[in-house]
């Protein structure tokens, strides 16, 4: 019985097909009926119009005749000469009475005025066409044709009964009344002109509007922050305020909305990337909480995408400098809006490197690093540096490096040097250090099952298993990111950086990018492959000898060369004497003014060339550099003098036999040649550090202390020893 009931309840496939056919037929009938009715009306009106025009053209006007002269059944001949129209006072009484009778009759308008027949005479067979047309009633007087709507049929025992319904006719009188009311209101508004506001009143009104907008923005933002999942739709309402049309407050409101949305996205964005759902995931049944979370994620991603598109459009409008049709924002205000948009993009670049559309933000920011506007360029460069410094894994850094490298290459290396200086903030050195420590401390190998069975008892195997499980969990917790993945990313990043550097060294040696390239090579030289060392040193020496470089650029070349030789370059049999000679020559070319950039590079070079390579440096070379450094300390500003004297102190500790320069009576073979640019052959052992006595009378107190300390032989104890706060500094 249950099976039969179920069969009765579920309609068969044939019935479903049959009913669906009936529905389609009804729809088709409705459509055909509407088309036919409209065509009929149109044809009828056209036919009437054509007939009326034809009749009006063909018919000739017939003058009124005297009814007394006209006899029924006979044709009246027209007189050749027309009689003049008589006024009323000159007409006969019979004529006047006839005219009055005709005027009182109802059929006067429908009859031909030339006939004097009575009203109820039978219609003639050959009646004129125009009379027929006039007698046809007007279509406006008749009721409109009722349109029928075909409904779903009813199935009965006898068969299928079709169902129809009259289409409801809308009342046009109401619409006319509404239009008249709207016109009256418009007339009233036009009659009352708006009073022009003074400047003070205008400012007060603007302040009031702005306060209202601020309160609205704050209310929306606080509602979203309190419950992001429930109020995600309010993000759209807040984003719609980016299109503010009130010219008084449009620019200010748009800036406030940009910053508010940026802070909101930073707060409510999850710490993972949201991927689109697959078809299988969409079709599966899920809980209400999961469905709510999915809706929140989809809404967040879509609104974030639209927000980024709006920011991009603002920057484009500023670049193109085209005024929009709405004319709400002036051309001058475009720059302010663009600066706020770029600042928001920079904040999102740094704050949300893990979230969706991060690569799109990178593509927007990198060209702006080379912008003509210095403020925007600096803002973008600082954001990229910040991203490099905080990026531990290296995924975001790799994306930025790829885009920068492609951009520099596309512009034929004609970009700002600040773009390449951002490479110095990459965190690649730390990974290499971790790699070395892992090589030294190799991971502990766990015992196999066979080894355990041979050496351990059953109870010991049980304990060992639990111990190994705990060690594995600790290791997983300690290494949150995969070291292999990190190393792979950093290796790829470094390859792109070096490719960019080498291309510039090869193709654009006179480019303003060269100092940034040399500085970058000096920092990452220890990570360069040994195969490139020989070629790179040859290129650096060629650049120095060419004479096209400034003293600062040549110092970077020297620094890079010695960084290469101090790392993996120890295995190479290369004599760097030419680089020592160049540095010795360049010391007197340093800027003695306010800038100290050159002095800082010199001190770094001396640390690499003399202190770290003390075993490869001869005493003559060390004496020559100490003498020239003390001479240089007399020419530069006090802060540079302090750094030079501190370096001299370190060299005197590194090379103890250089204290003979403090003794004026000691003499050797030859005469000191201060103008000779060869440190090995200038006979520095035959001179003394008389400059220290001049520096002891320097106006700067710390310079005085350092000079007195060096004259005493740089002791670590005693009255002439430096205080800890000075001696511990680099």
TrEMBL record:
The keyword DNA-binding does not apply. It comes from Sapajus apella (Brown-capped capuchin). Residues 79-92 have a biased composition (Acidic residues). Residues 33-92, 162-181 are annotated as: Disordered. Keywords: Coiled coil, Nucleus. Residues 213-307 form the Nucleolar complex-associated protein 3 N-terminal domain. InterPro entries: ARM-type_fold (IPR016024), CCAAT-binding_factor (IPR005612), Noc3_N (IPR011501), Nucleolar_cplx-assoc_3 (IPR016903). One of its GO terms (molecular function) is chromatin binding. Residues 449-487 form a coiled coil. This is Nucleolar complex protein 3 homolog. Residues 40-51 have a biased composition (Basic residues).
């Amino acid at each position: 019985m249950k099976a039969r009931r179920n069969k009765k309840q579920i309609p068969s496939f044939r019935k479903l097909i049959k009913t669906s056919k009936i529905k389609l037929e009804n729809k088709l009938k409705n459509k055909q009926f509407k088309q036919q009715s409209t065509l009929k009306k149109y044809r009828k009106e056209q036919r009437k119009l054509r007939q009326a025009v034809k009749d009006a053209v063909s018919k000739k006007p017939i003058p009124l005749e005297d009814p007394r002269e006209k006899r029924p059944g006979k044709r009246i001949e027209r007189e050749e000469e027309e009689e003049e129209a008589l006024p009323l006072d000159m007409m006969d009484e019979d004529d006047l009475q006839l005219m009055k009778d005709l005027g009182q009759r109802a059929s006067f308008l429908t009859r031909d005025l030339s006939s004097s027949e009575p009203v109820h005479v039978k219609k003639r067979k050959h009646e004129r066409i125009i009379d027929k047309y006039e007698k046809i009633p007007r279509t406006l007087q008749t009721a409109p044709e009722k349109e029928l709507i075909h409904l779903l049929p009813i199935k009965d025992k006898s068969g299928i009964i079709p169902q129809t319904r009259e289409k409801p006719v809308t009342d046009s009188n109401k619409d006319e009344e509404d239009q008249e009311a709207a016109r009256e209101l418009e007339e009233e508004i036009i009659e009352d002109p708006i009073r022009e506001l003074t400047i003070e009143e205008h400012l007060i009104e603007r302040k009031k509007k702005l306060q209202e907008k601020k309160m609205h923005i704050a209310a929306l933002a606080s509602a979203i922050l309190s419950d992001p999942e429930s109020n995600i739709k309010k993000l759209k309402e807040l984003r719609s305020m980016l299109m503010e049309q009130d010219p008084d407050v449009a620019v200010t409101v748009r800036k406030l909305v940009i910053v508010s949305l940026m802070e909101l996205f930073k707060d409510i964005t999850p710490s993972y990337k949201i991927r689109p759902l697959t078809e299988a995931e969409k079709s599966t049944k899920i809980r209400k909480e999961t469905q709510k979370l999915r809706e929140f994620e989809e809404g967040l991603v879509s609104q974030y995408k639209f927000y980024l598109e709006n920011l991009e459009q603002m920057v484009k409008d500023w670049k193109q400098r085209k005024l929009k049709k709405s004319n709400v924002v002036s051309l001058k205000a475009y720059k302010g809006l663009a600066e706020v948009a770029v600042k928001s993009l920079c904040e999102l670049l740094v704050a949300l490197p893990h979230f969706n559309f991060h690569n799109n933000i990178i593509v927007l920011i990198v060209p702006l690093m080379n912008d003509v506007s210095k403020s925007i360029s600096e803002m973008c460069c600082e954001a990229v540096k910040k991203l490099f410094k905080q990026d531990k894994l290296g995924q975001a850094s790799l994306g930025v490096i790829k885009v920068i490298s492609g951009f520099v290459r596309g512009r034929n290396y004609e970009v700002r040097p600040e773009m390449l200086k951002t490479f110095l903030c990459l965190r690649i050195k730390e990974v290499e250090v971790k790699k070395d420590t892992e090589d030294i401390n190799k991971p502990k190998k766990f015992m196999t099952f066979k080894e355990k069975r041979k050496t351990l008892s059953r109870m010991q195997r049980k304990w060992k298993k639990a111990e190994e499980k705990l060690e594995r969990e600790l290791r997983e917790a300690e290494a949150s990111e995969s070291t292999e993945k990190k190393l792979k990313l950093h290796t790829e990043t470094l390859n792109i950086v070096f490719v960019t550097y080498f291309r510039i060294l090869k193709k654009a040696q006179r480019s303003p990018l060269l100092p940034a390239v040399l500085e970058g090579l000096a920092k990452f030289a220890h990570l360069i492959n040994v195969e490139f060392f020989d070629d790179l040193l040859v290129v650096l020496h060629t650049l120095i000898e060419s004479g096209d470089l400034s003293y600062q650029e040549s110092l970077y070349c020297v620094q890079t060369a010695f960084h290469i030789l101090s790392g993996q370059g120890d295995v190479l049999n290369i004599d760097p004497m030419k680089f020592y000679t160049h540095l010795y020559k360049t010391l007197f070319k340093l800027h003695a003014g306010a800038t100290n950039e050159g002095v800082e590079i010199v001190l770094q070079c001396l640390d690499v060339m003399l202190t770290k390579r003390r075993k490869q440096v001869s005493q003559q070379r060390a004496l020559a550099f100490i003498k020239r450094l003390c001479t240089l300390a007399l020419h530069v500003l006090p802060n540079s003098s302090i750094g030079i004297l501190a370096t001299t102190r370190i060299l005197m500790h590194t090379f103890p036999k250089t204290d003979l320069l403090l003794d004026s009576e000691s003499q050797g073979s030859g005469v000191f040649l201060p103008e000779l640019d060869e440190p090995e052959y200038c006979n520095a052992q035959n001179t003394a550090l008389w400059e220290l006595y001049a520096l002891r009378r320097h106006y700067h107190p710390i310079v005085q202390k350092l000079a007195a300390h060096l004259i005493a032989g740089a002791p670590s104890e005693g009255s002439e020893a430096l205080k800890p706060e000075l001696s511990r500094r680099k």
